Amino acid sequence: MFQNLTFEYSGNVLGIAGNNGSGKTTLMKCLSFLLRPTNGSLYWEKDGKAIDAQTLKSMAGYAAPYINLYAELTVKENLTFLLKVNNIPVFERKLDDLLQRVQLSELGNQLFGSLSTGQQQRTKLAAALVRDPEIIFLDEPGSNLDKKGHALVQDIVEETSQHGKMIVLASNDPHEIDLCDRVIRLTSE
Q1: Per-residue pLDDT tens for 95-121?
Q2: Fewest CB atoms within 10 Å of the CB: 18, 23, 30, 70?
Q3: What are phi and psi of 65, to 5 degrees?
Q4: Residue ranges per domain, the chain?
Q5: pTM, 2 dp
Q6: C-alpha span between 181 and 112 (Å, rounded)
């Protein structure tokens, strides 16, 4: 799918832009080690040392339309599960603050499966942030969101990057790509 793709990056917000079918999601999955490239090499470094797939996954959060949470659990139960499975203590106050941040304060006890698609997308954003990761992968973060939700994505990207965290954002939305300090533009042929 990709030919002659080479880049280094050390900033805060890396964008992957392109039309539908250009390979944004495939590249995002490769960068996050959810998918292995068939040719070439891909590696991450931190403090001059290579990071393996398991380490990267432990320090990353991921939000995408195709990543699902448990429909039969509430919003809070899903977030709590993500913390417990990663051996991170659960603090109710932190969960409440996070739900407020993603505009879901009133829906913490709702079943994930009963939420609208926009509310589910905001829950997925919360899931990407709940472990306070160093790297956040956002694939089409504004999908299924209204104007208020798009503003929320912008706030999350700006606020998170100001705290020294790295965001890799794949989108065909020009407003989301404008948030990036470097952009890889993919074309489909």
Answers
A1: 999 999 999 999 999 999 999 999 999
A2: 70
A3: -60, -30
A4: 13-185
A5: 0.92
A6: 33
